[in-house]
Amino acid sequence: MDKAKQDGENAESEFSDGDLFMSHLFNGGTLAEWEGRSPKLVEMFHYAAVKLYNSGRYDEAHKVFHELVRLNHLNPEYMFGLAACLQKKKKYINAANIYLSSILLDPGVSNIESSFRIAECLIVADKSLDQAEQYLEHVIKSCSGMDDLKNFKSVAEAKLDLLRRNRSSKEKSGGQEEKNKES
């Protein structure tokens, strides 16, 4: 068999494997399943990532959470962990985007904390403050009538109030600066 023919067959085989892989992912499969990783092993990775995060080793935790997301891109808890690491590393916009991914994977009441964290990231980054307000309003509304979340609600209310006051004072001082320039 000549080399060109063998290379062509190898490429065709790899393409077929790629089709199988994409079909696996598009039908709800994960890379961990594709690679034959046991759920127990993936859970051990998660345990290690949480332990690293809780001990303040955010760079290391970030790497493990990143691997977890690679292995199972459908798990909102892994996305949340990755976002939390990014937030601790002051990569606020990246963190906000990953928190949003965790919400999209698991819409519903369980995403209240992700919404809250997105607002925090946007506020600290001083970006999209209108959206930050909307996220805080969502958190407050979602926590209403839930006794176990009343402390969370009060923190969101305080952050929203502070955000609005800061924005109002910036608008007033901006108007004052314009008057000073005109004089």
Short description:
The chain has helices at residues 3-26, 31-35, 39-54, 58-71, 76-88, 92-105, 112-125, 129-143, 150-182. It is mainly α and 183 residues long. InterPro entries: T3SS_Ca_resp_chp_LcrH/SycD, TPR-3, TPR-like_helical_dom_sf.
Q: Note the run of SSEs as H and E.
A: HHHHHHHHH
Q: Residue ranges: pLDDT <50 for 5 or more in a row?
A: 7-12
The total of beta strands comes to 0
Structural class: mainly alpha
User: At the third CATH level, what is the topology name?
Assistant: Serine Threonine Protein Phosphatase 5, Tetratricopeptide repeat
Relative strand content: under 5%
Q: What is the name of the CATH class? A: Mainly Alpha
Number of domains: 1
Assign the CATH superfamily.
Tetratricopeptide repeat domain
Q: Considering DSSP H and I runs of 4 or more, what fraction of the residues is helical? A: over 70%
Instruction: Give the CA-based shape.
Output: elongated
DSSP helix count?
9
The average pLDDT value, as a whole number, equals 84
Q: Work out the radius of gyration.
A: 23 Å
Largest β sheet strand count, sense and barrel closure: none
InterPro entries: T3SS_Ca_resp_chp_LcrH/SycD, TPR-3, TPR-like_helical_dom_sf
Pfam family, one: TPR_3
Protein name: Putative Tetratricopeptide repeat (TPR) protein
Family: Belongs to the LcrH/SycD chaperone family.
